[in-house]
Design brief:
By secondary structure, this protein is α+β, with helices and mostly antiparallel strands. It is built from 14 helices and 52 strands. Among the domains are: about 120 residues, no CATH class; about 120 residues, Neutral/alkaline non-lysosomal ceramidase, C-terminal domain (Immunoglobulin-like, Sandwich); about 100 residues, Immunoglobulin-like (Sandwich), CATH 2.60.40. About 15% of the residues lie in helices and about 30% in strands. Strand 28 and strand 29 form a beta hairpin.
Length: about 1000
């Protein structure tokens, strides 16, 4: 038996895998329509790498990843392993015990002792990277006994893949180990015995420090970028606060809770931990009464997705962030706080819901981005409104398809979907004079990008633009919604394991060239598996399953450790009924493609006679398996009125965005709508093409269990996910001296023009002391000599937790931290005297966390100049006018100030592209008395009568966009004497902004 193991070769493979995969990250920004996968991701990559690695065998010049997740760098890494463990790096020790007939006879011999040739035998190994030798050794016991062999604690172990590999009452967890399941599944639903319809709403600030890296993009990969960052860049600041929101509904017979989390990569273990906390409070089992949905912002804190301690590459650099037990605990506890607060808020309520079809045919909210497959955007939105008995809204939950991928900077943000929530809150606050928390719940968003850039805006203005567009489309329906006093809810969570065998793959369908540790049969999923056709747009071609190889085979990356976070999942089935109306819900554990969402709805139609128009799918809910795509969608055209799919013989659309000739899946070639078409989405779908059909079957089984708890389903009984708490060392928090904290480094100017950004800088506390999130900065205004907190249209205090400031931090020579807020207001913000009030916390060696406060200087907010262009006409002149153009924000990322920016961050007009002046509107900005025009020549003045001044507001083409607002004055000039005359135009708008144009009278050439 050859026990030589080339670590250099393995590192060579993983180096190329990291280059190929980390660069892509997850998702894609609205600017680039997704990130293109590497050109070479198939078998030839693996073959070339193995060839190169073999040539370098025996050279050890890279990192040797140990079981604790650390690295041992240098040529002596393998000899270090031998010295530390007593196990030779080139051989595997064998420890023989007593006689045996079964493996149970070896239980007293210790971990990893198995009955082999009637002797209790333990194979020892140097570190997790020697899993292939463990596989070879354990396979001597019996065929496939070593299929999931791992090297852990210097012992070869036969890891579990599903709960069926464990004993009674045990769950397969911790990447291949059987442990007792510590929860209590009683099936006793919460809420029986209530009195009437009630609801509870919670809005809780997520606890995390600035510096925690942001999940979603591999482009943020970095090494040791601060104490909170291990494999991704540290965050530098945030555009607003991140809140976790919960809505609990009590029908009187059943309670059900939905939690919205502004995050990415949240798995089933969070669902289980929150359910246990609710069970501890209420005594009821909440597993069938709880949905936790991630908005999938690509700019929320990372490091909470459970990754194994040992891996062959930095998995966190793929956009996930290396797992931190503290990051997970902060997130978990914040979610639990929101869940319990919602219970405490229960009070009488009314509820309404409505599905709006064809709501976004102009793609102003979201657009299909999976370009390797035919267009398939259903353009549907679900609105859920919760009121108090008097008709005042208490919560607004809504669901549609779009990624949260506008922000690629190092600023924490709710991204595009957070912008929708916050815009709606401003609208609702103005209409109802109360704060109404809004909750975006993902729908079929896997192949849909946000539409915030459709009119020429860029982040962060795109987050406001998409919010404006969404509000235009739904607010009338919200106000007119029928509200109900009674509701019935049925719900169940269906759990199931995921393995190659259960998915239906034949052994060897996925395999790498050559032998171990680089090739051979895959045991479970991989990334970048569609290589031959990935990237073309020919619907007639597709990748074949036979012999499919993956540039990032997970079993090699994970050292063959079964991927607990992906080896089981769940689908939640729920039905709401009120009178004759009902709506069915199905959750999906990841980035659900619209095509697969239709297959879910069609399955309920075919098996349970439910109208697909009354079915709603929630993606990114209760678990996360990355992208989940169809296996091979066939059949008729879905009944959705706004479906974007054209007939392949006529790929044109009318002026309203509808296909001129509607098409159906059957009009396209086989596998046109399939994972096998490739594209970016398939590169991040680890279970391959057969996962889609498997999930459709699980959706059927989930609904069958809703109809009959004893229904016969295919999946074997499966526990929820639980993990053993890791013993992570707490993050250091540095003290800040009392005489230093609160020092103003850069004060505000005495006078500030509207539309002009300013920055205020002070010495604050360590980010760990300042959390949750950032120091609180409040805008105050001097009203009759008394400083008063400014209140926003959403009725909340104007602070940097709202989308009105940028807040960042910079470290100064390891002595202290400076905090900076950047502030900018629009052309109509009230004039007056203002100041900033800061409330923060520092760390003190003696008393731990200590509050501090300070106040900025006073600044007077004054008007912004109105700008002009003038051109001659036959009768006189045309004067075009507007406020200064919005300048694109640039994220400078300077060495000493990572969050430094330039440009503007507020949107000035939803229809005006960056670089174009914002027009003066005829309603709200100017009236007949706003304009003065005259001619001057020395002391001679000729006035222009109002009858000769015509104000014109119009829509024009500008900067490549249509319907851009434009304002101008058409002026007929009076007869005048010889010589040069100056044209003087003065415009004073209704907000106190003034512009004066003085120029020689232009004439036609």
């Amino acid at each position: 038996m050859n026990t030589t193991h080339s670590k250099a070769a393995l590192r060579a493979v993983l180096s190329l895998v990291t280059v190929a995969l980390v660069a892509t990250g997850c998702g894609g920004s609205d600017d680039d329509n997704g990130i293109t996968q590497p050109d070479d991701t198939g078998a030839d990559v693996a073959a070339d790498v193995e060839s190169d690695a073999t040539a370098d065998a025996g050279e050890d010049g890279g990192d040797d990843t140990g079981e604790d997740g650390g690295t041992d760098t240098g040529a002596d890494a393998e000899s270090d392993a031998e010295a530390d463990t007593g196990v030779d790096a080139g051989e595997t020790d064998i420890i023989l015990g007593g006689p045996c007939e079964t493996h149970d006879d070896c239980a007293d011999e210790g971990e990893g002792s198995y009955c082999y040739e009637n002797v209790c035998t333990t194979w020892r190994c140097p570190d997790p990277g020697f899993w292939d030798l463990c596989e070879e050794n354990l396979n001597q016991i019996g065929e496939d006994f070593g299929r999931f062999a791992i090297c852990r604690r210097n012992t070869c172990l036969a890891a579990c893949m599903t709960d069926q590999d464990c004993g009674d009452g045990e769950v397969c967890t911790d990447f291949g180990e059987c442990h007792p399941f510590t929860g209590e599944i009683t099936g006793q639903h919460p809420g029986a015995g209530g009195d009437g319809l009630r609801a509870g709403v919670a809005n809780v600030l997520w606890t995390y420090p600035v510096g925690m890296p942001l999940g979603g993009y591999g482009q943020r990969a970095a090494v040791n970028d601060g104490r909170y960052a291990e494999s991704l860049r540290a965050s530098a600041g945030q555009t607003h606060g991140l809140f976790i929101r919960a809505l609990v509904i009590d029908t009187g017979d059943r309670m059900h809770m939905t939690i919205r989390l502004p995050a990415i990569f949240t798995d089933m273990s969070l669902h289980e931990d929150v359910a246990r906390a609710l069970q501890e409070r209420t005594g009821d089992d909440w597993r069938d009464s709880l949905i936790i949905s991630s908005t999938h912002t690509h700019s929320g804190p990372a490091r909470h997705w459970q990754l194994p301690p040992a891996a062959a590459a930095s998995l966190g650099s793929f956009g996930i962030g290396e797992f931190s037990q503290w990051a997970y605990i902060w997130m978990r506890d914040s979610v639990i706080e929101a869940a319990l607060a919602a219970l405490d808020d229960l009070s009488p309520a009314r509820i309404g819901w409505e599905v709006i079809e064809a709501f976004d045919m102009d793609d102003a909210v979201g657009r299909d981005r999976w370009e390797q497959t035919p267009p398939f955007d259903d353009n549907r939105v679900l609105l859920v409104r919760v009121d108090d008995p008097e008709g005042t809204p208490r919560a607004f939950m809504f669901s549609f398809a779009a990624h949260g991928t506008d922000n690629e900077s190092d600023y924490v943000s709710g991204d595009a979907l957070g912008g929708v929530e916050r815009w709606l809150e401003m609208e609702l606050g103005e209409r109802y004079d109360t704060f109404v928390p809004t909750m975006f719940i993902n729908q079929n968003s896997g192949g849909i990008s946000p539409g915030g850039g459709v009119q020429g805006h860029r982040f962060p203005q795109t987050t406001e633009r998409i919010g404006w567009a969404f509000a235009q489309k739904v607010m009338d329906a919200f106000e007119e919604m029928e509200m109900r006093d009674e509701l019935q809810i049925r719900a169940v969570s269906h759990r199931f394991p995921i393995t190659y065998d259960l998915l239906g793959y034949a052994r060897g369908d996925f395999a790498g060239p050559g032998g171990r540790p680089f090739g051979g049969e895959y045991h479970y999923g991989g990334l970048s598996c569609v290589g031959q056709y990935g990237g073309d747009r020919d619907y007639h071609t597709h990748q074949e399953i036979d012999g499919m190889t993956c540039a990032g085979a997970l079993m090699f990356l994970l050292f063959n450790q079964p991927p607990t976070i992906m080896a089981r999942s769940q689908i939640h089935a729920m039905e709401w009924t009120s009178g004759d109306d009902s709506i069915a819900f199905l959750t999906a554990p990841g980035e659900l493609a619209t095509e697969l969402g239709w297959q879910f709805a069609r399955a309920l139609r075919d098996d349970f006679d439910i109208d697909p128009l009354d079915v709603w799918t929630y993606g990114y809910a209760n678990d996360h398996l990355l992208y989940i795509l169809p296996t091979n969608l066939r059949g008729e055209r879905p009944p959705y009125p706004g479906l974007s799919t054209p007939h392949p013989d006529d790929m044109t659309y009318d002026a309203d965005g509808y296909p001129n000739t509607p098409g159906a899946p059957d009009d396209y070639p086989d596998f046109a709508f399939s994972y096998l078409q490739g594209g970016y989405e398939s590169t991040m779908s680890p279970w391959g093409p057969l996962l889609g059909d498997y999930l459709v079957q699980q959706a059927r089984d989930a609904w069958a269990k809703l109809e009959d708890p004893d229904a016969d389903v295919q999946a074997p009984p499966t526990y929820p996910t639980q993990f053993t708490i890791r013993d992570d060392v707490a993050y250091e928090i540095r003290p800040t001296p009392a005489d230093l904290v609160g020092t103003i480094v850069q004060d505000v100017p005495e006078t500030v023009e509207r539309l002009t950004p300013i920055e205020f800088v002070w010495v604050g506390g360590d980010p760990g002391a300042e959390m949750p999130q950032v120091p609180l900065v409040t805008l105050q205004r001097d009203i009759d000599g008394e400083w008063t907190d400014v209140v926003l249209p959403n009725t909340r205090t104007y602070t940097n937790l709202e989308q009105r400031f940028l807040t960042r931090v910079r470290e100064r020579e390891d002595t202290h931290f400076e905090w900076i807020v950047r502030w900018e207001e629009l052309h109509d913000f009230p004039l007056g005297d203002y100041r900033f009030v800061v409330e923060g916390h520092r760390h003190d060696d003696m008393t731990d966390r200590v509050p501090y406060s300070l106040t900025s200087g006073t600044f007077s907010l004054v008007g912004t100049p109105i700008e002009f262009d003038v051109a001659p006409t036959e009768a006189g002149v045309t004067v075009t006018m507007g406020y200064a153009a919005e300048e694109r924000m640039e994220f400078l990322e300077s060495r000493n100030d990572r969050g430094a920016v330039s440009g503007d961050f507020r949107m000035r007009d939803p229809m005006v592209p960056q670089g174009v002046r914002r027009a003066l509107y005829d309603v709200g900005d100017v009236d007949d008395g706003s304009f003065t025009v005259r001619l001057e020549q020395g002391d001679d003045v000729l006035g222009v009568s109002p009858e000769d001044i015509s104000y014109v507001f119009s829509r024009v083409d500008a900067a490549g966009r249509r319907n851009v607002p434009n304002s101008r004055l058409d002026v007929t000039l009076p007869d005048r004497g010889p010589g040069e005359w100056d044209l003087v135009v003065i415009v004073e708008d209704l907000h106190g902004n003034v512009g004066e144009l003085r120029t020689p009278v232009p004439t036609l050439p």
